[in-house]
Amino acid sequence: MTDKEMKLEHYREANKTAVYGETVFAGSSLMEMFPVNKLLQESGSDKIIYNRGIGGFVSEELWDALDVCILDLKPARLLINIGTNDLSDASIPVDSMIETYDKIINAVEQRLPDITIYLMAYYPVNYEAADESMKACLQIRTNEKIALANEKVARLAAKHHQRYIDINRNLKDEQGRLKAEYTIEGMHINEDGYRAIFDDIMSYVNEPV
Q1: Digit-coded pLDDT (tens) for 97-122
Q2: In the structure, what pLDDT confidence band is assigned to residue 123 with cuts at 50, 70 and 90?
Q3: Would the CA dihedral through 25, 118, 87, 167 be positive or negative?
Q4: Among residues 172, 15, 103, which one has the least CA distance to residue 181?
């Protein structure tokens, strides 16, 4: 069983005792690594958030796992960040990723017509602060490509009358890169980085739906 399959099986079991009508985080590693429940506990919040991110997921994999990662939980609110791994793959056109993303949103809306969906802007990267092992990837997944993809995600949100949200302001340096002190290897975000955006993301989680 692969790591992704093990995580899906864990989520499938956890979903059996979940409370419906809460908030779900879905996406790939940048969502999975968000220590939201630790930060909720530290802040004294009683909000329930189910994090169903899975590291390494491309958009098609989330499509295949839609029941476990989103639908089975019947959330009232979904914050989604999927597609960054597609952006790292030169063989996947951005428009192809957006088509899959559109398919995901359509399916969620059909099954959960009252849901509020927040399509998150992709986080920036920092090539200059990257480990050598990460630099080849970040020559494909550039901040310019991320900006283009974010424009398309914003249009996708508008098409569905859902919300496009950008919580990146505290992550960016003066050049618009991911701050070096907030990154693990140029792409992934450390706990300090997530702390820097926690209040901004919670402003959306706490909105009435």
Answers
A1: 999 999 999 999 999 999 999 999 99
A2: very high
A3: negative
A4: 172
CA distance 186 to 44: 31
Q: In what order do the strands lie in the sheet with 77-81?
A: 49-51, 23-27, 77-81, 116-120, 163-165
The long-range contacts involving 101-107, CB below 8 angstroms and separated by at least 24 positions, are 101/59, 101/153, 101/156, 102/156, 102/159, 103/63, 104/59, 104/62, 104/63, 104/66, 104/80, 105/156, 105/160, 105/162, 106/160, 107/63, 107/66, 107/71
**Strands 77-81 and 23-27, sheet pairing:** parallel
CA distances from 105 to 5, 29, 99, 175 (A): 23, 19, 10, 32
Torsion over CA: 109, 55, 85, 35 (sign):
positive
Q: How many CA atoms lie within 13 A of 31 on its CB side?
A: 28
Tokens of 132: 């050598």
Q: 22-76: per-residue pLDDT in tens?
A: 999 999 999 999 999 999 999 999 999 999 999 999 999 999 999 999 999 999 9
Q: Residue 59 CA to chain centroid, in angstroms?
A: 11
Q: Domains of the chain by range and CATH?
A: 3-204 (3.40.50.1110)
Q: Which helix (H) or strand (E) holds 128?
A: none
- Kindly state the tokens that stand for 120: 């998150």
Which residues are bridge partners to 118 per DSSP? 79, 163
